[in-house]
Amino acid sequence: MDRIDRRILRELQQDGHLTNTELASRVDLTPSPCLRRVRRLEQDGVIRGYRAVLNGAAVGRGFQPFVTITMRHEDQVTVAEFERRVAELPEVVEAHRLFGEPDYLLRIAVADIAAYERFITDVLSGLPGIAQVNSHLTMKQVKADRGLPVGG
């Protein structure tokens, strides 16, 4: 990956909606070589996809707490079932398995605190192997995900 590839990645992380012509202009290439580079980055798995970044409140998912989970049972079957079921929950927009304790960090997206309470009580608490669920409510987002630093 060279300097031009990194510039392409930076530009696409800022605006994945750019046309190839606009992107080529921003990275000082003509459209054909720019498109070849983008396709190569996609084929190599560097670019995994494109998506719109939504306003949670505008789509009824404005309440986004973090949840840490400590497992009671961490045998292979329980962990696999827990992870499978978490992956199926639309309210869970991110899930990470952690080293040490707690065991998992989840980001949840629901309408409001009442919907969150129902989700914790009716859904999350019923998943296998859970010993403890802790909620972490944010005051404000200080920095949004703006993509990965690609250097050079």
Walkthrough of the structure:
This protein is α+β, with helices and mostly antiparallel strands. Helix content is 36%, strand content 16%. The mean pLDDT is 96.
SSE blueprint:
Layout: H1 3-14, H2 20-26, H3 31-43, E1 66-71, H4 76-88, E2 92-97, E3 104-108, H5 113-122, E4 130-136
Antiparallel strand pairs: 1-3, 1-4, 2-3
Largest sheet: 4 strands, antiparallel
Strand content: 15-25%
- Note the total helix count: 5
How far from one another are the termini? Answer: 10 Å
**Helix/strand order, N-terminal first:** HHHEHEEHE
Mean pLDDT: 96
List the uncertain runs.
none
* Order of the strands making up the biggest sheet: 2-3-1-4
Beta strands, count: 4
How much is the radius of gyration in Å?
A: 20 Å
**In one word, what is the shape?**
elongated
Roughly how much helix do the residues carry, as a percent range?
25-40%
Structural class of the helix and strand makeup? alpha+beta
Summarize this structure as a short list of keywords or feature phrases.
four-stranded antiparallel β-sheet; 152 residues; elongated; alpha+beta; 4 strands; 5 helices
Brief characterization of the structure:
Helices cover about 35% and strands about 15% of the residues.
